[in-house]
Amino acid sequence: MKVHKSVLDTIGNTPMVELKSTIPKDSKHRFFAKLEFFNPGLSVKDRVALAIIEGAEARGELKPGGTIVEATSGNTGVGLAMVAAIRGYKAIFTMPAKMSQEKRDTLTGYGAELIITPNGVEPDDPRSHYSVAKKIADETPGSFYTNQYHNPDNPQKHFETTGPEIWDQMDGQVDMFIAGAGTGGTISGVGKFLKEKNPDVKIVCNDPVGSILYDLFYHKEIKNPPAPYQVEGIGEDMIPECLNFDIIDDFVQVTDKEAFTVCRDLTRKEAMMVGPSAGSALAAAIKYSEKLEKPSNIVVLFPDNGSKYLSKTFNDEWLKEQEII
Ligand SMILES: Cc1ncc(COP(=O)(O)O)c(C=O)c1O
């Protein structure tokens, strides 16, 4: 029988599909999408969740019956909640209020406990989702704080799986890879692998307007203070240790309007129901490709499934209220 032992064994080996109807007709480049929404928890974060828990188990940091604690924008929480359900751990997550209702309901649906924290507070403010998660971990016996922003198991998993899958699927013919950075795990792990294979591969990061990463990369200081934006999962108001600026060649800033427009286009024209961070990545890839002289193969990573954002991306009233369309 060709049967998996658990749903966790279906993580990874996601498909790569060439984009056709959402790219400029006169483009000399080819665009390929790595569809991470094919993972069982519908996002790229399933890979990292499993790696972080397996790392903690191997090091004896998480024992049977223990509690997994994490500050999450939703997707890592889903991955961790799946691992917790299968391996018998308790899961407690903290998440900022801006995250969609679908994400909240999904986490509690998997059996996790959820604590909602206020939007827009400084990361070291005791009310932030990072501080609240750390406090819960400190006060809960047998807990493991997964620390996805600073845990080296996160980029390492992408170095070991996502990067080799992309190289293999493209038969080594990759000129550019583009992804957003939340923890930075995806772009740092994939970027390191691709650069080791071919140092000429360009690694580009799409960053929401309002995130501090663009300024930090180009100016080594924060010229514009962090500002709110609606795309979930990417961009930062602090520096994650998982993000390796050294392997990134360029950053491209993307507005909410650009990200949500391309995200809706991807669903209608390519039948890929993706989240807004995928729209952001493709919007940035198209803008950046105009600068590339040589015809290039551009791989864009689509992190998650659009069904997580039905009340936002696919709700015209909400988009109008937010002045996005
Ligand atoms: C929707 C979405 N896109 C992109 C990312 C960024 O991935 P990474 O944390 O590997 O930088 C995340 C991370 O949480 C996410 O939830």
Structural features, described:
The chain is of the alpha/beta class and about 325 residues long. The chain folds into 2 domains: about 5-40 and about 160-320, Rossmann fold (3-Layer(aba) Sandwich); about 45-145, Rossmann fold (3-Layer(aba) Sandwich). It has 10 helices and 10 strands. The protein has helices at about 45-60, 75-85, 100-110, 130-140, 155-170, 185-195, 215-220, 255-270, 275-290, 315-320, and strands spanning about 15-20, 30-35, 65-70, 90-95, 115, 145, 175-180, 200-210, 250-255, 295-300. The strands form 2 sheets. Strands 1-2-10-7-8-9 form a 6-stranded mixed β-sheet, sandwiched between helices. Strands 5-4-3-6 form a 4-stranded parallel β-sheet, sandwiched between helices. Strand 7, helix 6 (about 185-195) and strand 8 form a beta-alpha-beta unit. Helix 8 crosses helix 9. The model has no long low-confidence stretch (mean pLDDT about 95). The structure holds pyridoxal-5'-phosphate (PLP).
- By CATH, the topology of the largest domain is Rossmann fold
Tell the overall outline: globular
The CATH C-level class name of the largest domain? Alpha Beta
Major beta sheet, strand line-up:
1-2-10-7-8-9
Estimate nothing, just give the exact number of structural domains: 2
